[in-house]
Amino acid sequence: MRCFWDEAQRAHAPRSEFFNGALHPAADVPERVDSVLAAIGRTEAPERRGEAALLELLGTGHDPAYLDLLRTAHDEWRAAGRTGDALPYAFPVHRRPRDLQRIDARLGAHSFDTCAPISGGTWEALLAGTDTLLSALDVVLGGDHAFALTRPPGHHAGADYMGGYSYLNWAAIAALAAGRRVAILDIDYHHGNGTQDMVAGRDGLRFASLHADPATDYPFFWGSAEESGGNVLNLPLPRGTAFDAYDAALARACDWLGEGAPELLVLSFGADTYEGDPISHFAIRTGDYARLGRRVAAMGLPTLVVLEGGYAVDALGANVAGLLSGLD
User: Fold this and answer.
1) Which domains are assigned to the chain?
2) Are 235 and 187 in contact (CB under 8 A)?
3) Which of 138, 142, 164, 285 gets the highest tally of CB atoms within 10 A of its CB?
């Protein structure tokens, strides 16, 4: 399988995030990349398309005002006399007025949590991630599998909001750019709320997600089984879910996605389903990932894999490599 990575994605280097009532060191650390690269071996550098071309493409899925915020937020934060990473602290409940001036307000209007800090290199990394995604997508459009080592993750980002370490939604961008019937399968521990929001109701696209029950786990406000309908299927699972139950749900999702006669598959893969992940509570073992990959491969579709979560750094590379081996 061809694998794509751009070293410029390391520029995203936030120091901390706020969750569960306290400030913590950022979980999306560059060491995650090192673990994956060591396990999968050779990668290819993507084609560089230039910022203007990337903005035009990103604008098909993300709001232009939101993209402008991502581009300028850290500079505005520093210009306001702040240090460190840009983070919101106030959020609208009922409406988001358009005439916001302070960077704090603009961040809050385009965020749903305090887990997406913007560092000085975040925008550079996002552009590099988009190049990485599109080069991998080109391979898949040609009929083969490809892995885009995308960083930071993407599936919690909506058309005009960030959260959950996510800023641009790689899976949704790829599906919209493909111009074909696309199945999107999300097998991260957490529900792909941003992906669901971006593709729900769109002709030619289907989205299925296996994830922790939102009654007990982040992102809490999306992902219930009751939200299923039309082109969306949510399969929430209890904490402690191990391979057999997970595989049964995965088989159901694959069958449902196949009913839409897709021409390609976008796989949002999060290895935070691993039994040793520090922020998650499933019981998938390293040896199970190849079996999950084979289940997905049985759909017989050219598949684009994008990396989402996975925070047990020492095991992440082996888990990613296992999934990819099952697809080959």
Assistant:
1) 2-48+120-327 (3.40.800.20)
2) no
3) 164
